[in-house]
Amino acid sequence: MTFMMVGYCVASSDLLTFDMDISSWSSSEMRVLQSLHIDQLPPAPVDRSNAYERIPATADLGKRLFFDARFSANQKISCASCHSPQQQFQDGLALGQGIGKGKRRTMSIVESGRSPWQFWDGRKDSLWAQALGPMEDANEHGGNRLAFANLIRQHYQSDYEKLFGSMPDLKDLPGNASPNGTAEERDTWAKLSEASRQSVSGIFANMGKAIAAYERTLHHAPSRLDNYIAGTLHRDPTAGQILSSSEKRGLRLFIGKGECISCHGGALMTDQHFHNTGVVSRDVKNPDQGRSSAISTVVNDQFNCLGKFSDAGPRDCQELEFIANDDPHMVGAFKTPSLRNVALRPPYMHAGQISTLRDVIHHYADAPSALVGHNERKRIAFSEQEIDDLVSFLGTLSSAGIEN
Q: Are strands 2-5 and 8-11 parallel, antiparallel or unpaired?
């Protein structure tokens, strides 16, 4: 005996398997499953500090800037060099590689506009401020602020002025200057008038706002897990076949015994917060302090929500205004990354210290002591089969990226 539904021929034995599968999820577990579905993502929050982020022409300009390698010291590094569309907008390296080698792993920027804090340590409080950091970093783009402003004037002036108004005249200024560049560039910057420094920094800030507008168009497509959840919630008799038995066991471990969902909850599978999980630093003599060392950086950043280049009002910046600067839990803590497409993004952790997902699960199960701060995790006894199942489940989160 068979049943026909939405074009599929399903054997009665398969229906029985599915009925047993769906009945094994409790009502509370079904609510948890629903919370993980990609459709549960609310509209992205509006960034009041970037008044241009939702203008299509801003995103179009930002996309061209994102892929333009002229915005680097050697004319070879673009944002896309480390945030490659072919690799889920990251680079697949343990440590980011631009002009030089960085100290941490490149994070994916897909859906990153949903987080109040950017980078592994949260040293930037907006997507546009995040876009500016690598530009002047010696190991990333290695460029300087005045050179970038001149490039905008040479190659993008018309499009820039349609969005941000007339550009200031830069013809009497030197070619290179920056408060964060080489000693010579810093010295030249210090000799500029305050009005010139503000004009150049304003162009620089608007570059970041344009790039952020483009980055906010990057989203995740539904994964096999999403298809399974949707089918299960709608009691589709074919849904039980979307995931293997191992993958479904892994899903149960993920939301149950493994307690993974405590940090990796929600449709993006991240709480957007910072946690110390005892990951060993690459430099054990000088361990990375993580979030705790970045708080003063973001508070004093001239491009933060409360800064003069922000479009926000003071009441729009509560995350920054009420930031906790003495929380001991932030010592050695790093941002929880989204698990979407995680199987496609090895190696893992903030500096690529762990090569495989299997080793990541072993690490969390072992819960080693942290070099700095305190590991929040508690030891969990997983069998090798359970670890296999968790790895299998994480593979169900892979999907294509989409651009709106």
A: antiparallel
Cβ neighbours for 8, distance < 8 A, ≥ 6 positions apart? 238
274-275 and 334-335 as β-strands: parallel, antiparallel, unpaired?
Answer: antiparallel
Q: Which long-range contacts (CB under 8 A, 24 or more apart) does 251-257 make?
A: 251/225, 251/393, 251/396, 253/382, 253/386, 253/389, 253/390, 253/393, 254/390, 254/393, 255/29, 255/32, 255/33, 257/380, 257/386
User: Which of 61-70, 144-153, 322-331, 386-395 is predicted with the least confidence, judged by mean pLDDT?
Assistant: 322-331
Residue 305 annotated in ligand binding: no
pLDDT digits (tens, 9 = 90+) for 118-167: 999 999 999 999 999 999 999 999 999 999 999 999 999 999 999 999 99
The answer to whether the pTM exceeds 0.90 is yes
CA gap 67, 80 in Å, rounded: 6
Q: Where are the alpha helices (DSSP H) in 37-176?
A: 56-66, 79-82, 127-136, 145-155, 157-164
Is 3.10.20.70 the CATH classification of the domain at 56-219? no
| pLDDT score recorded for residue 401 | 78
At residue 404, the pLDDT reads 72
CATH 3.40.350.10 fits 14-43+221-287+331-403, yes or no: no
Residue 317 is assigned to a ligand binding site: no
* pLDDT tens digits along 206-231: 999 999 999 999 999 999 999 999 99
For the chain, the structural domain boundaries read: 14-43+221-287+331-403, 56-219
Topology alike, domains 14-43+221-287+331-403 and 56-219: yes
- The contacts of residue 48 (CB under 8 Å, 6+ apart) are 305, 311, 312, 313, 316, 317
83 is in an annotated binding site: yes
Q: In the predicted model, is pLDDT for residue 10 greater than 60?
A: no
Q: How far apart are CA 29 and CA 173, in angstroms?
A: 63
